[in-house]
């Protein structure tokens, strides 16, 4: 009985100790996840769980976003999840999104999962027109998005209309030109075909490298008022703080780079920016809500920390991640090369097999033709032999008749009548008999010549028959050789070599010579990048010129007009910020 009481007590104590939980739904750019969280969990506990689930190590770019009364907010790491102003109903929904953007995606984004999440988020922002993108750049970005999704272009697979259901261009761009979906697809496919050989991660990185030069990329905009009550926009991004006219989100009126800001603070709804140069006036503005000021300060602190971090040596964790990324990239490159070689060998084997099959069919046709020629030669030889025999018999018969005529002439001469009339008649008959004998002799000679000619034709026919049989034997021997070659080729195509790659054999030991070589490689890459950028700009200008005639000027938005003015002046995102800083 005591044991039963003890077991009941232990069960009840376990029941009391079981923690209370609540359900959370996390939405990423391409998936949704649900977790059961303890009530005591802080924002960092939930955030770390999501990052572990995704296999993400570059956590400093991301955050969990939710909405409070039409205002965006981010989950604080040091605050309990339930202490945030989130809806009471479950599951509680958060969006796992990039909170801070890199200055240079290629240098800063190490993991493939990080690149992929940024690619999906930036692509959606461009399609939703939260980032302004000019038409020609939209087409180029769409071609890289297609490469990332479909792989290499294959005209036999990617036929006309294969992009009909894809959302690849902003609606603003589509409405701006008198172009059918087929015309847009043709231009996207033309560039898509040039990206052959790029893996998904490479295509997505090229997309980000182009997108990061767009004026609105990575900028968080907030409506503010200055001391005079003028409505303005505050932009916060990886480079600093920017002040915009509400009607022009592309070109800032003034910029404060992070390295030129001494202090940022707010008091209630008033926000203060103190420049590093004390000679420059302090900039103050008011936002609509205190919550907005908190969010602005949060974004400022995060972006400033990353700005300073980029200008320092990489931490040990980042160095390890980059080393692993290099190893993984090298391994994938070797795998792609092996697959490419194997594919090439298979294609060559298939081409050889097709060529041998074609040659075999040709030899079979030649053999059939030779058999038919042989049969015709045999038939001709039989006919000539039969005709020669008939001619020979006719010649014998003519010779016999000629002999009979000669005998008849001799008999007529012997028994000739003495009278003149009889003599004349006799001479006439003799003359006729001589003429008949002469004709019979000529006919006999002609028949003999014809018989000789037929014998010669018979010999030639038999010689042709002998040559046809010999050629048939040669073709038969070639066919057997071709079959053996075909079987060996099939064996080659099925027994292709396989390669095992051991990533543990890769190591990195940088010495002075390695650093010099690395510096040379970096310089070479810079030159190649400049040449590529020049070529890319030429392509963009060519497409812009091509579709300019189809543009509907009356449908241009204010941002289109501003972008065209900036382009005509030669202004880009970076040199504009330098000018207004």
UniProtKB/TrEMBL annotation:
It is a peripheral membrane protein. A 1,2-diacyl-sn-glycero-3-phospho-(1D-myo-inositol) binds at residues 76-79, 294. It holds the Pfam family FERM_C. It is found in: Cell membrane; Cell projection; Cytoplasm; Nucleus. GO terms for molecular function: actin binding. Residues 571-581 have a biased composition (Basic residues). The keyword Cytoplasm applies. Residues 447-466, 561-581 are annotated as: Disordered. It comes from the Eukaryota. GO terms for cellular component: cell projection; cytoplasm; nucleus; plasma membrane. Residues 519-560 form a coiled coil. Its main location: membrane. Keywords: Cell membrane, Cell projection, Coiled coil, Cytoplasm, Membrane, Nucleus, Phosphoprotein, Ubl conjugation. InterPro entries: Band_41_domain, ERM, ERM_C_dom, ERM_FERM_C, ERM_helical, Ez/rad/moesin-like, FERM/acyl-CoA-bd_prot_sf, FERM_2. Residues 22-311 form the FERM domain. This is Merlin. It comes from Elachura formosa (spotted wren-babbler).
């Amino acid at each position: 009985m005591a044991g039963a009481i003890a077991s009941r007590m232990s069960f009840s104590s376990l029941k009391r100790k079981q923690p209370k939980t609540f359900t959370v739904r996390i939405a990423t750019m391409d998936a949704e996840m649900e977790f059961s969280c303890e009530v005591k969990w802080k924002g960092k506990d939930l955030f770390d769980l999501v990052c572990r689930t995704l296999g993400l190590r570059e956590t400093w770019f991301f955050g969990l976003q939710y909405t409070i009364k039409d205002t965006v907010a981010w989950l604080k790491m040091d605050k309990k999840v339930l202490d945030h102003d989130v809806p009471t109903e479950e599951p509680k929904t958060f969006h796992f999104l990039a909170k801070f953007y890199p200055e240079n995606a290629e240098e800063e984004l190490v993991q493939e999962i990080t690149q992929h999440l940024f690619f999906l988020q930036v692509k959606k922002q461009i399609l939703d027109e939260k980032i302004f993108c000019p038409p020609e750049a939209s087409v180029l970005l769409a071609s890289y998005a297609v490469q990332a999704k479909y792989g290499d272009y294959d005209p036999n697979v990617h036929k006309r209309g294969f992009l009909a259901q894809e959302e690849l261009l902003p609606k603003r761009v589509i409405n701006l030109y008198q172009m059918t979906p087929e015309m847009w697809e043709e231009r996207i496919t033309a560039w898509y075909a040039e990206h052959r050989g790029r893996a998904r991660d490479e295509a997505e990185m090229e997309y980000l490298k182009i997108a990061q030069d767009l004026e609105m990329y990575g900028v968080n905009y907030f409506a503010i008022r200055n001391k005079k009550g003028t409505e303005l926009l505050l932009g916060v991004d990886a480079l600093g703080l920017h002040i915009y006219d509400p009607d022009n989100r592309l070109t800032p009126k003034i910029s404060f780079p992070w390295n030129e800001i001494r202090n940022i603070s707010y008091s209630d709804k008033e926000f203060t920016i103190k420049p590093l140069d004390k000679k420059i006036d302090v900039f103050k503005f008011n936002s609509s809500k205190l919550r907005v000021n908190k969010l602005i300060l949060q974004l400022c602190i995060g972006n400033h920390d990353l700005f300073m971090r980029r200008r320092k040596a990489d931490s040990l964790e980042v160095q390890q991640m980059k080393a692993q990324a290099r190893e993984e990239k090298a391994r994938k490159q070797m795998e792609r090369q092996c697959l490419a070689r194997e594919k090439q060998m298979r294609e060559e084997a298939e081409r050889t097999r097709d060529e041998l099959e074609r040659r075999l069919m040709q030899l079979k046709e030649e053999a059939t033709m030779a058999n038919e020629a042989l049969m015709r030669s045999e038939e001709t030889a039989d006919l000539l032999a039969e005709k020669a025999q008939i001619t020979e018999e006719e010649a014998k018969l003519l010779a016999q008749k000629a002999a009979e005529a000669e005998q008849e002439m001799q008999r007529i001469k012997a028994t000739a009548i003495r009278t003149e009339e009889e003599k004349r008649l006799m001479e006439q008959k003799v003359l006729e008999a001589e003429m008949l004998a002469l004709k019979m002799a000529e006919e006999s000679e002609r028949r003999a010549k014809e018989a000789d000619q037929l014998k010669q034709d018979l010999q030639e026919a038999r010689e042709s028959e002998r040559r046809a049989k010999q050629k048939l034997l040669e073709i038969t021997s070639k066919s057997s050789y071709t079959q053996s070659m075909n079987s060996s080729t099939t064996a080659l195509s099925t027994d292709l070599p396989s390669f095992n790659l051991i990533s543990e054999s890769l190591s990195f030991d940088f010495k002075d010579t390695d650093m010099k070589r690395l510096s040379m490689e970096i310089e070479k890459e810079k030159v190649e990048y400049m040449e590529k950028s020049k070529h890319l700009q030429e392509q963009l200008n060519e497409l812009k010129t091509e579709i300019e005639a189809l543009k509907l000027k009356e449908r241009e938005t204010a941002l289109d007009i501003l972008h065209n003015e900036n382009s005509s002046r030669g202004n880009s995102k970076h040199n504009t910020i330098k000018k207004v800083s």
